[in-house]
Design brief:
alpha+beta; Alpha-D-Glucose-1,6-Bisphosphate, Chain A, domain 4; 3-stranded antiparallel β-sheet; 5-stranded antiparallel β-sheet; 3 helices; globular
């Protein structure tokens, strides 16, 4: 699949960025391209997206800055969104890889990349503000 990695530098320690971004309850604050709202349903998170409700989960908590997350638009279907927080001097670099699904047009892929860039910009403003 075609892929593009979007990144943003954030003037905050990686542990701070990771802790904020890894909390699903913070998703509506910074990830509007994905999440309009979020709620807990038994053992999983449900995010209300522009395309409707989807299951959501992060990779297990870790000290490596791995914020990979999985969205499930329907039972048995799951998509990986690789995301990392890595040290950049005294601050952080947040990297998010966007994949173009085989059935997505180039324009839809470009729109996804723009939404991710906007969301990472929002994350930066929140954490530096």
């Amino acid at each position: 699949m075609k892929a593009t990695t979007v990144s943003v530098s954030i003037d905050r320690a990686p542990a701070d960025v990771y802790a904020f971004a890894a909390n699903p309850e913070n998703l509506p604050r910074w990830a509007a391209g994905l999440c309009l709202s979020v709620r807990r349903a038994d053992r999983e998170w449900i995010v209300e997206t522009p395309q409707g409700p989807m299951g959501f989960r992060f990779a297990p908590s870790n000290d490596l800055g791995v914020l990979d997350h999985y969205v499930s638009p329907s039972p048995g279907v799951e998509f990986l969104n690789p995301m990392r927080v890595v040290p950049n001097g005294a601050g952080s670099e947040v990297l998010f890889t966007v994949f173009q699904p085989p059935d997505a047009s180039d324009e839809a892929f470009a729109q996804d990349v723009r939404l991710v860039a906007r969301d990472l910009g929002t994350l930066k403003r929140l954490l530096e503000g």
